[in-house]
Amino acid sequence: MTHPPRNSSFYSIREHDSVVMPHRSQKALLKLSKKQIKPGLVVIELTGRVSMGNDCLEIDRHVEEHILHDEKHLILDLTGVHHVDSAVIGQIVKSHSRLKKSGGMLRLAGATGMVEGVLRLTNVNKVIEIFPTATAASENFPAEN
Fold it and tell me: What is the per-residue pLDDT for 15?
């Protein structure tokens, strides 16, 4: 198996708390950034097109990292996401389950258009609360265990 050269766009670009994942189309990159609102509560902002493969692995890695650092209340801010596929829906549900088992919680924010439609069609909204903004999602979070 041949690997692309190190300077190829195949590799993730990591800057501060942001990750840009190359995708099928260079126009549609997943960008992931995070910010801590208060101890134990983190917003992970996703933008672009989010699809199976590396995108799901990156989300999974971030959720696991936060659980290990005892940051178990997460908000996935989907305001900038214009497309998700079924693998991403599965990853969101998996993340919700892992956080719940660790004593935490996942909330979704900012889903509109196609993304909101898919979340409702798959009934994710009946399992995970969806808020119009990350600010609204951050209010009244249960106290840390």
Answer: 34
User: 86: which residues sit within 8 A by CB, 6+ positions away?
Assistant: 52
C-alpha distances (whole Å) from 140 to each of 47, 65, 120, 136, 143 are 25, 24, 23, 9, 9
Per DSSP, 144 falls in state P
CA distances from 93 to 13, 14, 50, 66 (A): 26, 26, 15, 16
C-alpha pair distances (Å), 68 with each of 15, 65, 99, 104: 21, 5, 11, 12
pTM: 0.78
Domain boundaries, the chain: 13-138
Label residue 141 exposed, middle or buried (CB < 10 Å: 0-12, 13-18, 19+). Answer: middle
Angstrom distances, CA of residue 97 to CA of 1, 41, 72 = 36, 17, 12
In the CATH hierarchy, which fold is given to the domain comprising 13-138?
Answer: Transcription Regulator spoIIAA (3.30.750)
